[in-house]
Structure formats: C-alpha cells, structure tokens
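Standup notes
- DV: blocked on the single-chain target, sequence here:
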Amino acid sequence: MPPVPPQKELPNYADSLWVAYSVSVLAAWNSEFVTYPLDLIKTRLQIQGEIANKQEEKLVKAPKRGMFRTTVGIVKEEGVTKLWQGVSAALVRHMIYSGTRIVSYITFKEKVFKKGKKDVFPIWQSAICGVSAGAFAQFIASPTDLLKVQLQMEGKRKIMGLPPRVTGLFDAFNKIVKSSGYRGLWKGSIPNVQRAALVNLGDLTTYDTAKRFILRNTSLEDNHFCHLLASACAGLVAAGLGTPADVVKTRVMNQPLDEHGRGMIYKGSIDCLLSTIKNEGFPALYKGFFPIWLRMAPWSLTFWISYEEILKTLGAKQF
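- DV (later): unblocked, structure below
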C-alpha cells in the first residue's frame, strides 16, 4: 500500500492581514469612544495662549484654563455632549489609521526583518517598524485628523462670539477642498506624521518590546495582566515622545488660511515650533501632556486588551 502523502496544512484565515486590520479598527473604535473627551480637552488646552491673527483677535482674550476648569467650562457652557464633538471624524480616522498602522507593523516585522526565533525581536528593528508604520498610516489618515481638530474647536468659537467655520464633517471637508484644493486636506501633515512616528515608536515598539520582556523574564502568561503592564508602559512613553509634535500639529491645523490656502499665523511646523517657544516658553510644547497621558494610558490599555481578546476569540495568534 503506497504511503499517504502528508496533507498540506490549511492556512488559518484568522491570522490574515485583513482580519488584523478589521480587529484593530474595532479595538480602536472602542478605545476612541471611551477616551475621546480627554482628546478634545487636550486640543482646547493646546490652542490656549497662541497669538491670533488680526481677523480673530478675540482668541487672545479667551481666559486661560487648566484641565479641570476647561472640562467644567465645556460642560457648563456648551453641554456635556460637546465632550464628544468631532468624534465622527475620529472614528473615520481610525478606519484608516489604526488598521494601516497594525498591518504595516506586522508586515515590516514578518516580511522585511523576517523575525526568526520566537519572541526575540531586537528593539532597534522594532523601533524602525514602529516609526515607519506610524508615519505611513498617519500620512494616509491626515485629512481626517484635520477635520477632527476643526470640529473640536467649534464649541469654543461659539461661546467666544466668533462665527462658526464648519457645521459638520462633510461641511468641513467641502470647505477645505473649496478654499485650498485637495492638497489642503494635508495641511499640518508634516507635524502630524512626525507626531505619529514618535507616538508609534512609543506605543507599538514599547508594547511589543515590553510584552516580550515580561513573557521572557517573568512567570506571567500571555494574559490580561501582561497586556495591562505592557500597555501602561506604551501609553507613558508614547505621551512623552508625542506631546510636543502634537501641540505643533494641533496649532498648524487649527489656524485660518488666506485666499491662497496659506496659514495666517504660522508658515509651517518649524515656524510654529519656534514661535511657540519664543512667545510661551519651552514648557508650552507640553501643554495638554496630562490629558494626553491620561488618555493614552486607558486608550492603549483598552485598545490592546480589546485587540488581543478579539484575536484570541477568533483563534488567531496574539500580537
């Protein structure tokens, strides 16, 4: 009787990139909705103190508030639901950004560096993967970030007696395209990409490295507690690396444009960086750090636990 040829192992479709993409989007939506108010508060804090152009001099007269007073002010002056103003743009953003960054990181890790020995991945290679994946994903998703920032600032403009610039997601999109063309959708993309590269260096690289370190050097298993420790490290490092670039990105995106689509306050990200330091001092680059950190820690925790749990339920390999 002839020997039975070994049967070819069928691929596990749960381990495919499209599943990783879909799961990362679902996990990101969950995290985004839970922590979004902190992102809105952070944006408001970062705009405070900047020198306005002549057409919007009232911005200079706006009272300066800390994190707590900003939160209370939004609830009292605009309503509690305004803490989620612009969340639609944020959810659309994660349909592009979160799925792309995870798939890109996995692709770079498995295909470019061809990770060999299990659970051994040099930190310098992980750093390259994290920076590259973050920059690539953010460049593609940059227009949605621009829409989100502009929607987040509308509540503040209203209580300051300024006319609204946009009334919703599609209105913001149409006005940007009409005034600056499709290239205008990438206003602030350079500081945005820089920020995303640093944030993902902190998030993806730190989470991956911390998780492997914990699994190799402790008796912990690949479970919720391990994910909690690794995500806590990731959130702290990501906030520390990304806050200055986030301040610059927010201000460049929020500034008004002239008839040629050029910024009326800053010439670009470098000008914004230097102007901020000159007018407000170096600590201004860390405006909003506390809400950023408060948001990134639970965001990272919620995202990674959701992501890993969904993969486990589907029978896919863990991150």
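- Follow-up: DSSP finds ten helices and no strands in the chain.
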